[in-house]
Amino acid sequence: MDEERLRMRRELLQRARRQKTSAYRRQSQMTSGKQFFLFRIYMTMILVATAIVLSFFSTETTRAITDSLKEAIAYEISLDTLQQWKEKAVTVFEQTVEKKENTTAPPAEQTTQQNKTNGFQPDLNEKSGEIP
To answer: Is residue 130 included in any domain, yes or no?
Structure first.
């Protein structure tokens, strides 16, 4: 009986080890793709930061380096994707500007009161700054 219990216990321990190692392998395989993706993002950010820092210095070498970095980044991303991102960015920017204008614009009654109290009205003609 004791031998049978020991054998059963060994089998259970071996199964547990196999399951643990197989789960670890599956987890490491799934995270390796994520790790590679994060590494690529990290490297792209490093390249962009380098290009920004180098763009502050105006020399032939820095121009050549920033141009090569721009080409490397442009090689990774297609022109269509960049165009789509640009369109999205422009629409989001326009929407935020409209929201800010709507929230910061005072009501019409307040503007008329302000105009009444403000006695000075500048001349906005094109020739207003010329001395006759």
So the answer is: no
State the DSSP H helix or E strand holding residue 87, giving kind and residue range, or none if neither.
Answer: helix 79-104
Question: What is the distance between the alpha carbons of residues 86 and 68, in angstroms, rounded to a whole number?
Answer: 22
Find the radius of gyration of the CA atoms of the chain: 33
Phi, psi dihedral angles at 4 (to 5 degrees): -65, -40
The residue range of the domain holding 66 is 2-96
Residue 78 located in a structural domain: yes
CA distances from 32 to 9, 17, 109, 125 (A): 34, 22, 63, 67
Q: Which tokens is 109 given? A: 């009654």
> In a structure prediction context, what are the per-residue pLDDT tens digits for the chain, which is 132 residues long?
688 888 888 899 899 888 888 776 766 666 777 888 889 899 989 988 887 887 787 788 878 877 887 787 777 777 788 788 889 888 988 998 888 888 876 655 555 555 555 565 555 565 555 554
